[in-house]
Every structure is written in structure tokens, then in C-alpha cells.
Amino acid sequence: MEPRLVGPGPYRATRLWNEIIELFRAGMPLRKHRCRFKSYERCFKASEAVDCLHELLGSNQNFGPEVTRDQTVKLLKKFLKNHVIEDIKGRWGKEDFEDDGHLYRFPPSSPLKSYPKKPLCGKEVIKFPDWNEPKAGHSQEHIPVKSVAMNSEMWYKRHSIAIGEVPACKLVFRRELTQTNIEEIWKSMTLARLQKVLGLDSLDEVLDTKLVNSKHIVQNVYNVNKQGIVTLEDKSKELPHWILSAMKCLANGPSCSDLKQPTYSGFERDVFKTIVDYFGQMKEPLLTFHFFDIFVSVLGLLQKPSKAVEALQISCLLLPPENRKRLQLLVRMMARISLNQDLPPLSETVRTRTLMVQAFSHCILCSKDEIDLDELLAAKLVSFLMDNYQEILSVPSALKSSIEDHVVHLQRVQIKYAAADSEAPLPPPSFCHQISTSEFEYQKATGSQEPLAALLEEIVMNKEISVKDKKKKLKQFQKSYPEVYRVRFPTPESEAMLFPEKMKQKPPILMWALKKPFQPFHRTRSFRM
């Protein structure tokens, strides 16, 4: 059985759990073993299981080579607890698995997890600014213009400037957007972009959008200092000064002058333990329980780093500002410590980078309900965060520009034509979907040429204008839209048929005009032979 990449989507942790079980059962060698003078068929040693599963996880693109042997042992403990494996006497249910020579076997069928039936979060309809309810004291001149589906008559009046006429129109001012309106726009467009990057039809099964606070998004975007770190309005939620000093001390290494460092050996390890203990006592991870599924879903994009970075950028904007700031400071410290060659080693047996991942993964990402792959998934995400923290924890400039442009567009003065259907329903917001080239060309042709063709036909069939004016309008239309005109009148003959020439009646020829003037009779001579 070949491992496959489990992409973004609902229940990704469950799908990964089931795949690892299937791969482990298929790849674990089974043979005969002896224990206490007794032989056991089709079983394996605990150490052999660790070797096999560790190699399997390291070569699996969903987890990668950074999975440690200790993490593999912890996963096998969960396998034993969930009856994926059992000892040779059929016992299971406890996490007493150790990396030793004890014998284990597979039960007749290792139970795969069923996909949980989550209660529907309910699709929250993002409320856009309602232009149908003018404020008290405002005249109807300030109502906005709604989008309309134009018929040929409206198209004719909108484009009549091309044929020499300008319909009556007036300037219309949008109602001023409130801060709530702007926050709702930020929320709706941010979630729409996240859904597109993840490639999902809906976010409903990976995110309860009702729990997304639009104020948090706006604060995370605009309330930042020069380094891009969030500035909090509530100073009581800031990290304690002594923790900040300790983090700065380790991040900047022995050269840090913020603290008067003692000279005793092991000082850095004590400071590191203090930081680990502080973050470890938090009741909720920095990425919060609510957003666990969305961040696990993003892990399915790690094979496409640019998309994964953008998805994490947007997802981190959803966090409460105090969580985002702590995440920024913590991940920056972890990355700097990992690269600090002057810092004394913080562990005798574990590399510094691995130690950072093991120490802080649980306080960054974990599920409220115990998930068997929590630790591996968190380690994968934290490793990627450390490698790309400067970009991930910054504000996505493309998203910010697009939303700001949209807000400006809503506030811009519009032109309202007299023929505009003010009662046309406002279409709901929609999202873009990729289409084929042929479909694009078809939409391009039908979407622009059909209304123009209808306008041309209306000019042709209009009997209320004189022939002279009709010829003038047709000539101007031909100059503005030659392709549409050529379809309607492919030949000069077809154009001439529109204006058949009337037979000109020649004046009657008078008989007297044909007659020669009277001449006197002259006798002629005859010659006779």
C-alpha cells in the first residue's frame, strides 16, 4: 500500500489516523517469536514496531523526517490504548507500551475511526451594508444604485453616447460605511479568500464562522508596530515583563544586556525551563481550540509552500490579538534560538531545533478533545512556522489591498441613470470559479455581443426615427462596434435592403418636344433618266 497525501478538508486528523493504521498493518513484518519457553506465531517485538513505524512516518509526506523515535513510541502507546495492537495475551487499553523486547500482535481487525457527525454550524450569512434602509433625515438622493440585469432598452440608453445621445442621469452618494460595516466586509472577504486557497467548496466542516470575530481581524491588520507585532489595546493581556526579558535573553544569546546574567553553568537551561513552564500552564493553545480543524487542514498544503504560507497568513488573522502577539513573540524566539550558534546547548541529548518543537508544540496547537495524532500534527505545523515565521505572521498585503479597494469602491460617488431599475434585487455575493478557455471565450462573446446585437436590432426596427437619423446612428454604431455590425450586415446588399430606393418617376415627354419646328414645303427636282 502506497502512502498518499491527505489534503485539506474536514476530518483530516481522522483520515490520517486511519491511513497510518492501514500502512502500519500492511508494512509491519510478522514472524514467530519465543517467550518464556513458548512460541507465538505472527507477532513482533516492541522495538521492531518502533523501527517500522518510525521509518514509515519519516518517509510519509504527511509527517516527514522530523518525526522523532520518542514521538513514535507515544503513537504506539495510543495504538495499544485504542486496540490497534495488543500484547500476546490479548491485553490492551493502557498506554504502557515501551521500546523494549515485549511481544505484540495485531488483533483480527484494527478498528478504524469513523468520521464524526458534527452538528451543523449553520451557514452564517455575511451581512453586507444594507443600502435599502436610509438613515432618518437623509433624502432619497443619497440612496445607492443597485446592480441591475439590463435589457436591450436599458443597454441602449446606457450606451447611447456611442450613437450621439446622453440619457438623463444624476450623481448618487453612498451612505457612509460604519465601522461595523467595514469589519463585516473584512470578515466576509477574508473567509472567502481562505476558502479559495484551501480549495474547499465550503468552510462549514472545518470552521464555525460564527466564532470568527471580525474585530479581531481588523485589529490584527492595523494595530501593529514597526516590526509588525500586534499592539494590544488592553495592556492587562500583555506578557509579563519578566517573561519578555527571559525570551529576549535566550533569543539574543550571551550578548543580551537586558538581564544581568549570572555566571553559573546551566543558567540558560533554567531560563528556558521557566519559559516552557509559563506557556505550558495555559488553559488553551495559542491557535485556540476553535481553529484546530482549520490549521490541521492547512497542513495538507505543505507540499505547495506558497499556498500553505498564504493559508496560514489568513488563518492567523482570525486569532484573538493577544494570542497572535504571543505567537509572534514565541515563534520568533524559537527560530532565533535554533539559529544561535553562540548559545550553550539546552539539552545534552536533543538538538536545539527539535527541543524547540517538542517543548512548545502542545501550547501552540492541540485539540480540546484528545486526538491521537495531536503531537505529530502540531510538530509538523510548528516546524513550518519556524521556517517561515516572518512571512506567515505578517499581514498579507494582497488581501489587505483588495479589501481596502473594495471599501473605497463602496464609498465612491456613482452615476444613476434615469432608466435604471431601482427595484431590481441586489444579487448575493458570489465567489469566482476557474473555467476553461473555451468557456471563457464563449462567455466573452455572448456576454458582450448579445446586448449590443439587441441594441443594433432595436435601431434597425425603430420606425419612429427618420431615415436620415437612422442612417446616422447606424454609421456611428458601425464605427464603434464593427464586429457586431458585420454580423448583422455581412454584405453591402444586406445593408442596402434596409433602405430600398424608391423608383424615380421621370416627367412625361411632351409630344411637341419631339416634333421639329415647322418648315415650309420645298419642291424638289426629279431627275429622270
TrEMBL record:
Protein name: DEP domain-containing protein 1B
Coiled coil, from the record: none
UniProt GO molecular function: GTPase activator activity
Gene Ontology BP term (one): positive regulation of Wnt signaling pathway
Domain Rho-GAP: 201-393
A Pfam cross-reference name: DEP
InterPro entries recorded: DEP_dom, Rho_GTPase_activation_prot, RhoGAP_dom, WH-like_DNA-bd_sf, WH_DNA-bd_sf
Keyword annotations: GTPase activation
Organism of origin: Erythrocercus mccallii
Keyword Nucleotide-binding included in the entry's annotation: no
